[in-house]
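[step 3/7] inverse_fold.run input=structure_tokens len=620
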């Protein structure tokens, strides 16, 4: 019985006052830094043994905690409530239930939340443990049941990685003992595979992925009577993501909590580690720590006001001037008396000096909703524009398709949402097209400065055999592009444009696809503010894919020896971009791949104990 000792371990919980750090504030209103505050309580019931997932939207102005309920009564009842907490408005919203389970875990890849493993509602034995995998789409508000993990697991460490991978690390197995399995799910192929296991079995610990490094701390294992404070560090191989080089960190967790803990990427210190139970199977605690990772010390930001464990933990942020304000949220969680959960929402605030987001607006057609939210279709050829699943250069999911192959006459306009108007802006998008024989299908770009009331023609791109749209030779079958049959279009827009139109004009030729649409501010004459970054970072190269040059930006919080090198798919170093003493600040380096062949490459920043790797695609 997985909860057999629960009712025999009553604990009196003493209230703890809020932390009294002196606030350091960039504006006079709210969000005092280094303090705990109380948010709106989660609607009843709360739970223990569920999970939390933080999410910040693409414009960095709204953030949420997604809350996955687990055991609501201490007896394994798990009806499957699923809610989200808006950190900005301090409100809770009910979402569609999932198939409820106790001892479940969750992680996120992009706008998809994955719930992994756990015991079915009411199960009374560990042998009922499952590997059930369900996905919630933030974009569509729908749940999908997917292929179960091969090894059943409960309270695993679960986290998304890069753009398509999900790691499920350790957990409680079907015998009631911790397991050391590391299971890797690929959301593109929908398949699982085994990765390098943990050195020793663990369950109920905290886990995050920061850069290319997995941190798994504390937990029970190899038995449920062994409580740990060490931290496993796993470096993910960039040639095979199932290969993990595990070591034991020289840093040990300094608090008294040992398991039933959770962690999340967070603000200035990199990682937030929430409260858990002490060295006893059932219990609560009030520890809270932040950590940079590596060899840096953990910093206490506790005690958390209301002790708990098995809470729903996540973080989000929003931009305020030159600062990024972070909120770590600890919602609901275990207490040692009926109903065995609290309804508290406890929030810790911190901030980082962080340059405001790039003046850029983008659309990648990743949502199945078409046209995307805020977009509109006009014109007589009602079947001309639709969403396709193929994506630019084979990366990501989705594009917009002008179905010239099946629509013989007319025009159809795909009108963007209204976006911020800049003095001078540039439209950039990827397209793929071929004609049927020699028909001249066209794409006219129009711009509006008044939200679509009036339109100004900017350019007309031609199809045919050699027009500006062409990326492949003529064919009589309906055209679906391969990863190599795309190219970039870059167009300067009229001043103060705040809406663009893609006007498809059919000549009954073959299909056109557009994707990765971005409008970027290129207004000149502005003196940039120089900010010293708060942490090491390596940005995604731009453009990506590229041919043959691309720009890589990296940030240094202090001066130091830095090496940035480029590697091919076999791990061979093909270029050294930086190798020497670099000052603190933000830096750019240009990579010229004129002498390299098309394919996937990796670029890596190494300085001290910091090791960050990113992927890029060269298409010639």
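[step 3/7] decode complete -> sequence:
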């Amino acid at each position: 019985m997985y909860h057999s000792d629960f009712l025999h371990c009553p604990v009196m919980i003493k209230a703890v006052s809020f932390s009294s750090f002196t606030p350091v504030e960039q504006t006079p209103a709210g969000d005092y830094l280094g303090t705990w505050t109380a948010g709106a309580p989660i609607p009843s019931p709360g739970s223990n043994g569920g999970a939390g997932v933080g999410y910040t939207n693409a414009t960095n102005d709204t953030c949420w905690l997604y809350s996955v309920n687990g055991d609501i009564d201490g007896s394994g009842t798990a009806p499957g409530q699923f809610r989200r907490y808006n950190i900005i408005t301090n409100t809770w919203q009910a979402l569609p239930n999932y198939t409820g389970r106790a001892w479940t875990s969750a992680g996120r890849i992009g706008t998809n939340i994955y719930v992994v493993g756990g015991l079915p509602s009411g199960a009374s034995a560990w042998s009922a443990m499952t590997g059930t995998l369900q996905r919630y789409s933030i974009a569509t508000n729908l749940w999908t049941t997917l292929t179960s993990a091969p090894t059943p697991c409960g309270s695993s460490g679960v986290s998304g990685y890069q753009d398509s991978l999900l790691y499920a690390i350790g957990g409680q197995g079907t015998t009631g003992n911790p397991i050391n399995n590391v299971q890797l799910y690929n959301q593109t192929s929908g398949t699982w595979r085994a990765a390098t296991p943990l050195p020793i079995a663990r369950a109920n610990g905290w886990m995050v992925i920061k850069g290319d490094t997995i941190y798994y701390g504390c937990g029970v294992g190899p038995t449920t009577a062994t409580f740990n404070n060490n931290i496993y560090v796993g470096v993910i191989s960039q040639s095979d993501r199932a290969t993990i080089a595990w070591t034991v960190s020289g840093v040990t967790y300094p608090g008294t909590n040992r398991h039933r803990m959770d962690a999340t990427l967070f603000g200035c210190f990199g990682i937030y580690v929430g409260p858990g139970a002490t060295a006893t199977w059932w219990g609560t605690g009030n520890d809270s720590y932040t950590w940079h990772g590596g060899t840096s010390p953990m910093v206490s930001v506790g005690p958390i006001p209301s002790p708990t464990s098995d809470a729903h933990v996540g973080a989000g942020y929003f931009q305020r001037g030159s600062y990024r304000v972070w909120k770590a949220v600890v919602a609901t969680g275990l207490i040692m008396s009926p109903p065995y959960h609290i309804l508290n929402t406890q929030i810790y605030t911190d901030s980082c000096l962080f340059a405001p987001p790039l003046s850029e607006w983008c659309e990648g057609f990743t949502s199945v909703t078409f046209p995307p939210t805020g977009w509109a279709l006009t014109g007589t050829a009602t079947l001309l524009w639709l969403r396709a699943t193929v994506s630019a250069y084979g990366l990501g999911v989705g594009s917009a398709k002008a179905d010239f192959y099946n629509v013989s006459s007319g025009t159809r306009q795909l009108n963007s949402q209204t976006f911020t108007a800049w003095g001078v802006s540039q439209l950039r998008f990827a397209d793929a097209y071929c004609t049927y024989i020699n028909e001249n299908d066209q794409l006219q770009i129009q711009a509006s400065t008044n939200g679509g009331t009036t339109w100004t023609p900017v350019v007309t791109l031609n199809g045919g055999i050699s027009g500006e749209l062409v990326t492949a030779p003529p064919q009589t079958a309906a055209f679906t592009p391969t990863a190599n049959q795309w190219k970039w279009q870059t167009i300067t827009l009229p001043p103060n444009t705040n809406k663009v139109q893609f006007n498809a004009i059919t000549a009954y030729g073959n299909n056109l696809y557009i994707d990765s649409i971005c409008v970027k501010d290129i207004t000149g004459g502005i003196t940039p503010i120089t900010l010293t970054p708060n942490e090491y970072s390596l940005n995604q190269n731009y453009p990506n894919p590229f041919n043959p040059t691309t720009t890589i930006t990296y940030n240094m919080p202090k001066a130091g020896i830095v090496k940035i090198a480029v590697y091919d798919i076999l791990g061979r170093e093909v270029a050294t971009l930086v190798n020497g003493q670099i000052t603190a600040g933000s830096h750019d380096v240009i990579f010229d791949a004129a002498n390299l062949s098309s394919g996937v490459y990796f670029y890596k920043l190494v300085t001290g104990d910091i090791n960050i790797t990113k992927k890029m695609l060269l298409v010639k």
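[step 4/7] annotate
The chain has three domains: 39-353, 360-521, 537-618.
The first strand starts at residue 35 and ends at 39.
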